[in-house]
Amino acid sequence: MKKSLWLKLLSKNVIDMQHEMGDTYQRIEKWSMKLHLFYFLLILVSIVMLIRIDNKVLSVVPLGMVVLLRSASMYDVKLQFKTFSQRRHFEFLYFFTLLVPHLSSARDSKTGLYRVLTKMEERLKEEGEGESDGVLKAGVNRLILEMTNNPGVLTPFIDFARTCSGTEIAEDVAVALFDFQQNSDDQQAITRLKNKVNRALEKRIGEIVDIKLRRFNWYSERVVMAVFVFLIGIIGTSIYVRVVDTFNLIKDLN
Known about the structure:
Layout: H1 5-8, H2 12-20, H3 25-52, H4 60-109, H5 113-127, H6 131-149, H7 155-164, H8 168-182, H9 187-253
């Protein structure tokens, strides 16, 4: 694909993140165009200020705004992608928590993985509404097709994990699912899959707890610092008043 000027103004990393979140290249291009036209307007304002006003230093203000706004926009994209990735990974694991009981029943009734995934994919169509649900539905559908076209091949399962989660632990779960497909009569295969899903969920829950604790500690530290600064201000003001009163008293005595 030939990049337009507006796409060239964005880093490849930002484009890839937005595209992975579901934005088309046309939407990314329009977003970049609006963003950079506003930046160019600020640069133009800076040039006009440099020519027209006496205080040349003020002309730097719009340029500073361009730098800050661009940094904030790129940071916002990264933050959105991080949230999207976390939600996507959780949806992937939640899907497997629903899938494992179906696989256990399928093993007893000799129902294949293909039929189970087809049933789950139909359920995702009925229930899914979010962006991550859309990624998961597309991933499951692609996996079903690849299982038909390339039976007995591990690669579609790895691609499924990378698309729907993008984590190493998700790839481990996908490998366990492939193992089940190859050995559906083996009770150990479903046990290994169940254990991998449980470990992945425990790790994910641990990460969420760590994030919450870090946020709590961050806010706690800020509150303590605010109180400390407030107390220092009160003490400093009291000392200043005492010193001024003392000097005034000495002046009166003299």
